[in-house]
Each structure stands twice: as structure tokens, then as C-alpha cells.
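Notebook entry, structure prediction.
Reason for the run: the old model in the group folder had no record of what sequence produced it. Starting over properly, with the input documented here first.
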Amino acid sequence: MSNDSYQIGHQGELIAEQYLTQKGFKIVSKNFHSQQGEIDLIAKDGDFLVFVEVKNYSFRSLGSPLGAIRKSKKESIIHAAQTYLYKNGIKNTNCRFDVISIYRKYNGQTVIDHIKDAFYAR
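New structure, fully documented this time:
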């Protein structure tokens, strides 16, 4: 990943973290890595443990942000979530996978799309 891509991704994660905190979420972990994947943010939303994938774009791209997350990416996020649960001894808890998309309109305004239950572990 280039330094520019890293910076754009990191900036998006900071924006998403602030957004979630303002919505009442409690951030419990950032950039959790497993052997097969990474989770950008892990948060508590009431009774739910939420695994959040953040997509940060410099402009509104064609298609939906959810479409940018291919099957292999979903599988790696799910694997990382399972690893997180196992390593932290978390059982019998409600979990979900959310996607936060951040982009800028042509007028410079930042737009945040939060897709709850974006995909499911099978």
C-alpha cells in the first residue's frame, strides 16, 4: 500500500471513529489483525459488538461502497472477527458487520454513509 493510500485510509478511520463515538458507540479496538485479515474498528453499540470496515474515497465513485468489498475481503474480515472473539474469550454475544463509507462531494462537503448489517458470517 502506498503512503498516500495509507494516509487516506488512516484519515477515514479517524473520521469513522469520531462519527461512531458521536452516535454513542464505544470503540474497543482499532486495526485488529489476524493471520488472514484486518478489522478497521471494533465497537460496542448497545448489546452488539460491531466489526467495522471503513472505505474512504476522495470522491464519490461509481457503484456502492458495499460493492467494493468483494467476497474474499468479507471472508478475511469474518476470519479476523472470529480470531478477535476467540483471543478475547468472547462468547454468546450479538455481533454484526457494518461498513462506513466516507467521500467528498464536488463542493468539498464530506459525506458519511453507515451501512449496518452490511454482510453476515455464515
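Summary: The domain at 3-119 is CATH 3.40.1350.10 (Trna Endonuclease; Chain: A, domain 1).
The old model has been moved to the deprecated folder.
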